[in-house]
Amino acid sequence: NSDLMTPELIWERIRLSMKNNETSLAKYLSGKLSEPDQTWVNRWISTYRNPASGTRNPQYEDIPIARDILAHGMRRLASSNIDTAINRWDGLKSNYAFNDEQIEEIERTLAIRSVIGKHPQSKSLLDAIDNQYVDETIFHWRLKDALQKKDWQTLIKWTEGEAPVEAINLR
Fold first, then answer.
1. Exposed/middle/buried for 18, CB within 10 Å: 0-12, 13-18, 19+?
2. Distance of CA 132 to the CA centre of its chain
3. Which region holds residue 57: left if phi is over 0, alpha if psi is between -120 and 50, else beta?
4. What is the reported pLDDT for 32?
5. What pLDDT sits at residue 163?
6. 89-96: long-range contacts (C-beta < 8 A, 24 or more apart)?
7. Nearest in space to 155 (alpha carbons), one of 167, 163, 165, 147
8. Phi, then psi, of 134 in degrees rounded to 5
9. Are 122 and 86 in contact (CB under 8 A)?
10. How far apart are CA 143 and CA 155, in angstroms?
11. Averaged pLDDT in 10-residue chunks for the chain of 171 residues
12. 12, 54, 138, 139: most buried, per Cβ within 10 A?
């Protein structure tokens, strides 16, 4: 069985564990990895536990695991401290080559959390989401933001044109 667990498979399990907040499982799985890889798992768990600290000036080389850790940390930070997350994102985005999926996920999380936290930048964060990524969830948060602010011009802008694909499928 352990012969079948290649480092790639172990990393895949660790990624799933971290995505599901299973840090103890990730730590256990990391015991089967090389010492440098164990260090990366420890950094990830540390960032999970304290995303404000883990995403502050990380000094990691720009490699996929570093981007995974920072993307995960940014999503968690957005939930606990939207101001810090918004301020931190531009620096991280310019220093690390996040893939499109990571960028979209982080920017969606920042936008949604900014509405929940009634952040003054919520409109610009929601507006910055590329139309191809505007689904029913983003559409909902855009409506909520515009209605809360009584921003009728933005409401019109966000509701004219094509409806999100999910809305079309519900008809």
1. buried
2. 17
3. left
4. 93
5. 57
6. 92/55, 92/58, 95/62, 96/60, 96/62, 96/66, 96/67, 96/70
7. 147
8. -80, 105
9. no
10. 7
11. 80 96 96 96 97 95 96 96 95 95 95 95 94 91 95 91 54 43
12. 54
Q: Which two tokens stand for residue 72?
A: 């995960």
- Judged on CB neighbours under 10 Å (0-12, 13-18, 19+), 160 is exposed
At which residue do the structure tokens 């930070």 appear? 77
- Other Cβ atoms closer than 10 A to 13: 18
Q: What integer pLDDT is reported at residue 1 of this predicted model?
A: 47
Asked if residues 19 and 75 have their Cβ atoms less than 8 Å apart, the reply is: no
Name residues whose C-beta falls within 8 Å of residue 138's C-beta, 6 or more positions apart in sequence. 108, 111, 112, 126, 129, 164
Q: What is the reported pLDDT for 5?
A: 84
Q: Give yes or no for a contact between 126 and 118, defined as CB atoms under 8 angstroms apart.
A: no
